[in-house]
Amino acid sequence: MKIVIGSDHAAFEMKEFVKELLLSQKLKVIDVGTHSSDRCDYPDYTSALVKVALEQNISGILLCGSGIGVSIVANRYKGIRAALCRSADDAEMARKHNDANVLCLGARTNSKAEIKEIIAAWFSSTFEGGRHSDRLKKFQDLGEPC
Fold it and tell me: If you compute the radius of gyration of the chain from its CA atoms, what whole number of angstroms results?
């Protein structure tokens, strides 16, 4: 399985933690940056991640200080269903009911242990379909093409 990850400078260290976690689970990781803690702008890395996720039809994990900024930018794009998750329960429901394809995390709002739990819940949950599919169809054509 392949996944794309990205972050801004505020979440660089946490992104590196997440990358190592994913690699330890034998996932192929595409890291779109940032590659240091030097100041940068989260919309740039969010857009880079979205492009890869859509082109390769894979899921992504985005991080910034709060997770809010990256989730706002990611959801501007058609085909992206980004979910800011602060708990394992959030991640489970984002997958089960919203078929979220991008997990957004806050490096300053969650600990490494919490992020590990959130990611575990994300990967162990699958979309339930049914009535949830009907709801997704109502907004699947909204947003900007990548």
Answer: 14
Annotate 97-131 with b (16+ C-beta within 10 A) or e (fewer).
bebbbbbbbbbeebeeebbebbbebbbebebeeee
56-90 burial: b if 16+ Cβ within 10 Å, else e: eeebbbbbbbbbebbbbbbbbbeebbbbbbbebeb
Give me the pLDDT at residue 93, please.
Answer: 98
Answer whether the bond into residue 46 is a cis peptide, omega within 30°: no
What are the phi and psi torsion angles at 7 (to 5°)? -160, 170
Domain annotation for the chain: domains and CATH numbers: 2-137 (3.40.1400.10)
Query: Would you please indicate which residues are annotated as catalytic (active-site) residues?
Result: 97
Predicted TM-score (pTM) of the model is 0.94
Amino acid making up residue 64: C
Residue 103 has pLDDT above 90, yes or no: yes
Give residue for tokens 């819940």: 121
Average pLDDT for 27-54: 98
List the single range of 19-23, 58-62, 123-127, 131-135 with lowest mean pLDDT.
131-135
Secondary structure letter of residue 144 according to DSSP: B
